[in-house]
Design brief:
The complex is a heterodimer.
Chain A (H helix, E strand, L loop, with lengths): L1 H23 L2 H26 L4 E3 L2 E3 L1 H30 L2 H7 L4 H31 L10 H25 L3 H17 L12 H7 L3 H13 L5 H27 L3
Antiparallel strand pairs in A: 1-2
Helix pairs in contact in A: 1-5, 2-3, 2-5, 3-5, 3-6, 3-7, 3-9, 5-6, 6-9, 6-10, 9-10
Chain B lengths: L1 H11 L9 E9 L6 E10 L4 E5 L6 H8 L7 E6 L2 E2 L4 H5 L2 E4 L11 H11 L5 H14 L15 H12 L8 E5 L7 H16 L3 E5 L3 H7 L2 E6 L2 E6 L1 H9 L3 E7 L5 H15 L34 E4 L6 E6 L2 H15 L3 E7 L3 H20 L1
Parallel strand pairs in B: 3-8, 3-9, 6-7, 7-8
Antiparallel strand pairs in B: 1-2, 1-4, 4-5, 9-10, 11-13, 11-14, 12-13
Classes of the chains: A mainly alpha, B alpha/beta.
C-alpha cells in the first residue's frame, strides 16, 4: 500500500513537472536564460580579458584565462538566474487562478513545490549544458573534467537550483504583490550576482568584501562548479559542498513550510 | 419526486452510495483567535444526485464553506464527510472524484483552448491520447468552443474563458461524482448560461451531485433541489425552493398592474393608503407600539415564526415603466377590489393585472432581512 502511495506521489509530481514545462514557463524566458550568459561570456569575457591581459586567473593549482573562468562561473550563475522560474510559476499560477485549481485536483502543496524545484533543476541542467556547448570554444583549452570531478559540478547545479528555487518560493509566498516580489528578488539577486565569485575571484579582495562573498551561496555554487569543470577538488571544495548542502536543505524546508501555510 | 429520482439514480449507479454525498456537522472556522467565527457551527447533508444550492449575502461564509469542502482550507472544528469519507483523512481519495469551478477565473494563459483541455485531461489521469482527444472534441462541441479551439486562453473574452473553465471540469466526467460550482455563470450571456444549467441538469439526472453557490435566484430556483441560506456564518433557512417560498413567503402575493396612463404621485399615495387601511392597524404598529411607515417591510421586526401571519406590504413603481406598479400584500383579493373601485372612481383604465406568488429572491431578502433585524434587536 505504501509503495502504491509512493508511486502515486512520484507520478503526480511528474505530471506537474510536465505541466510546468508545457504550460507554465514562458518560452521567452527560456531564450533569455541562455542568451544572457552567452552574451556575458562573449562580450564581457573578451572585453575584460583585454583589460586584464594575459596573466590568467588561478583556480587551485591551475591558471585559466578570464574567459574560461567566466564561462564556468556563468554556468553556476545561470542556476540562480533560472531560479526565478520557480517564483514566476507560483505567481503566474496565482494570477491565473491555476494555483487553487491544481490544489483542488488530486495534487497537494508538497507535490507542487517539489514539481517546481524539479522543473527548475531540469531547466538549470539543460541550460547549463547548452551554455557549456556554446561557450566550449572559449573554455576547451582549459577544461579538465574527470569522472570524479563532474559529479561536483552536477551537485552544485542541483543543490544551487534547490537553494535559489526554494528562496524564490519563500519570497513569492511572503510577498503580497508581484511588483513587490520583483523589486525584492531583483535587489537581492543583484547582491547575489555581484558579491560572489561568479564574475571575479575572491582572492585578493579587501577582507570585508571577501567575507561577504562567503555569506553568499552563489559563491559556493560557482566555486564547486568551477572545481568540477577544471578538476580542482580540494578540502575547501568539500567544505563548500557541505555548506551548500546544509543551506539548500534548510531553505527547502522553510519553502515547503511556507507553501503549506499559504492559503489556497 | 425528488426522493424517487434519487432512488432511481442510486439503483442505476454502480457506485457505493450509502448515506449522504456530503455530510457537514457543526463546522466552525475562525481566522485568528481574536476574530469572530466566519462559520459558526453549520450542519447540513447533501444527498447524492441532487443540486444543493448554497445561498447567502456577501461575506456570509459561502466561500469559506466551499474552500473547506474543496480542501483549500482546514476547518477550526467540526466534521466533514464526503462520499462517506473523512475529508481531512481521505483528502486525496475524495479529490479524485470532485470537480471545482471556482468563482475566480483559472486558465493556462500560454496554451490554446484545445491544448489546455488536453493537458487537463492528462492531469486527471486520462493517459490514452486517443481517448483524451475524443473527450476534448466532445467537450469542445458540447460547450460550443469549436470556433476558439486554437485560440490562446490569454486572448479569450471573459465569457469565453469562463466557458472553457466550466467545460474543463467535465473532462473527467465518468469519475466525477460531485461538482462544486461557485457562481459559475458570472460573465456568461443568457444563452450560454441556460446551456450550462441544462448541461448540469442532464448530468445530475445521470447521478452527478452538485454543490452550487449563486447570487442569481432564478438560477437557484431553476436548478436546485434543496437550498440552504447562510448568513453571518450560520444556516438560517434550509428547504426545497418551493418549501422556502411556502414557509417564508407566507400568504404574500405580488399584484402587478399596468395602467394605460402615466401614474401621478397623488394616485400612488392613494394606493398606499388603500394598502394601509386594508392590511389593518396591526401592520402599522410593531410589537413595541411604534408607528411604522406604510411602505416599510413590516415583517422586519417580527420573529421568523410569525412571518406567515404578517405582511410585507409595499408599493413599488415597476422598473422604469411609469404606468405600472407592483404591490406586495397578504390579502391580494381584498386589495384588488379596493384598487378597482379607486380606478373606477378616478376614471382610469387598466391595461393588465396579475397576481403572482413571491419570487425566491423576495423570500431570500425577507429571510436575510429578518435575520439582520433579529440580530440588531438582540444587540439592543
Amino acid at each position: 500500500m505504501k509503495s502504491m502511495n509512493d508511486y502515486i506521489m512520484v507520478y503526480s509530481i511528474l505530471l506537474l513537472v510536465y505541466r510546468n514545462i508545457v504550460a507554465a514557463i514562458d518560452k521567452m524566458f527560456l531564450i533569455w536564460q541562455i542568451a544572457f550568459p552567452v552574451v556575458y561570456i562573449f562580450v564581457a569575457g573578451y572585453a575584460y580579458s583585454a583589460l586584464i591581459g594575459d596573466q590568467g586567473i588561478a583556480i587551485g593549482s591551475l591558471t585559466v584565462t578570464y574567459v574560461s573562468f567566466l564561462t564556468a562561473g556563468m554556468i553556476g550563475f545561470n542556476v540562480m538566474n533560472g531560479s526565478t522560474i520557480a517564483g514566476a510559476i507560483i505567481w503566474n499560477d496565482k494570477r491565473n487562478g491555476m494555483f487553487q485549481q491544481i490544489l483542488v485536483m488530486p495534487f497537494n502543496k508538497i507535490q507542487y513545490v517539489i514539481a517546481n524545484l524539479i522543473t527548475l533543476i531540469l531547466i538549470g541542467l539543460g541550460s547549463a549544458a547548452v551554455i557549456m556547448l556554446i561557450g566550449f570554444p572559449t573554455i576547451f583549452h582549459d577544461i579538465n573534467v574527470t569522472p570524479w570531478s563532474i559529479p561536483y559540478t552536477v551537485y552544485a547545479l542541483v543543490a544551487g537550483s534547490i537553494f535559489f528555487g526554494s528562496f524564490t518560493i519563500i519570497l513569492s509566498t511572503r510577498m503580497k504583490s508581484s511588483e513587490g516580489y520583483n523589486v525584492i528578488s531583483n535587489g537581492l539577486f543583484l547582491f547575489f550576482a555581484f558579491v560572489s565569485s561568479a564574475f571575479y575571484p575572491a582572492e585578493g579582495l579587501p577582507q570585508p568584501l571577501a567575507a561577504a562573498f562567503y555569506v553568499n551561496p552563489l559563491t559556493y555554487i560557482v566555486d564547486i562548479t568551477r572545481a568540477g569543470i577544471f578538476a580542482q577538488i580540494d578540502m575547501f571544495t568539500n567544505v563548500e559542498v557541505l555548506i551548500l548542502g546544509l543551506l539548500s536543505s534548510a531553505v527547502f524546508l522553510i519553502a515547503t513550510r511556507s507553501m503549506i501555510k499559504m492559503e489556497g | 419526486m425528488l426522493n424517487d429520482r434519487i432512488n432511481n439514480q442510486a439503483h442505476s449507479s454502480t457506485r457505493d452510495r450509502k448515506g449522504p454525498c456530503i455530510s457537514v456537522t457543526n463546522l466552525k472556522k475562525q481566522y485568528g483567535k481574536a476574530n469572530a467565527f466566519t462559520l459558526d457551527g453549520i450542519s447540513f447533508d447533501v444527498e447524492y444526485g441532487t443540486v444543493f444550492g448554497f445561498l447567502g449575502p456577501n461575506g456570509a461564509g459561502k466561500t469559506t464553506t466551499l474552500k473547506i469542502l474543496t480542501t483549500l482550507l482546514s476547518p477550526t472544528s467540526g466534521s466533514v464527510y464526503i462520499f462517506g469519507k473523512d475529508l481531512i483523512k481521505k483528502q486525496s481519495e475524495i479529490k479524485r472524484k470532485i470537480g471545482v469551478v471556482s468563482q475566480n477565473p483559472s486558465y493556462e494563459a500560454n496554451l490554446t483552448v484545445e491544448r489546455a483541455l488536453d493537458l487537463y485531461g492528462l492531469l486527471w489521469g486520462l493517459h490514452d491520447s486517443r481517448v483524451r482527444k475524443d473527450k476534448v472534441n466532445e467537450i469542445l462541441n458540447t460547450f460550443d468552443l469549436e470556433s476558439i479551439r486554437n485560440s490562446k486562453n490569454d486572448e479569450l473574452s471573459i465569457g469565453q474563458r469562463r466557458r472553457v473553465q466550466l467545460a474543463r471540469e467535465f473532462i473527467h466526467g465518468e469519475d466525477m461524482d460531485l461538482l462544486f460550482l461557485d457562481e459559475p455563470t458570472i460573465g456568461l450571456d443568457p444563452s450560454a448560461r441556460r446551456m450550462l444549467l441544462d448541461y448540469i441538469k442532464k448530468h445530475v439526472m445521470s447521478g452527478l451531485t452538485v454543490f452550487f453557490t449563486t447570487h442569481i435566484m432564478e438560477e437557484a430556483e431553476y436548478l436546485c433541489d434543496e437550498i440552504a441560506i447562510i448568513d453571518n456564518g450560520r444556516i438560517i433557512a434550509f428547504d426545497t425552493p418551493t418549501g422556502l417560498k411556502q414557509k417564508y413567503g407566507g400568504a404574500n402575493k405580488i399584484i402587478e398592474i399596468t395602467f394605460k396612463e402615466v401614474l401621478s404621485q397623488s394616485f400612488i399615495d392613494l394606493l398606499k393608503k388603500i394598502i394601509i387601511s386594508s392590511t389593518g392597524s396591526r401592520d402599522q404598529k410593531d410589537k413595541d407600539g411604534n408607528h411604522k411607515n406604510y411602505d416599510e417591510s413590516t415583517s422586519n421586526n417580527i420573529s421568523k415564526d410569525k412571518i406567515n401571519t404578517t405582511t410585507t406590504s409595499h408599493v413599488d413603481i415597476k422598473g422604469t415603466n411609469p404606468s405600472a406598479v407592483s404591490i406586495t400584500v397578504n390579502n391580494a383579493e381584498e386589495v384588488i377590489s379596493e384598487i378597482l373601485q379607486l380606478v373606477s372612481k378616478k376614471g382610469m383604465q387598466i391595461e393588465s393585472i396579475s397576481i403572482n406568488p413571491p419570487s425566491l429572491e423576495e423570500v431570500f431578502l425577507s429571510i436575510v432581512n429578518d435575520e439582520n433585524n433579529s440580530r440588531n434587536n438582540e444587540r439592543k
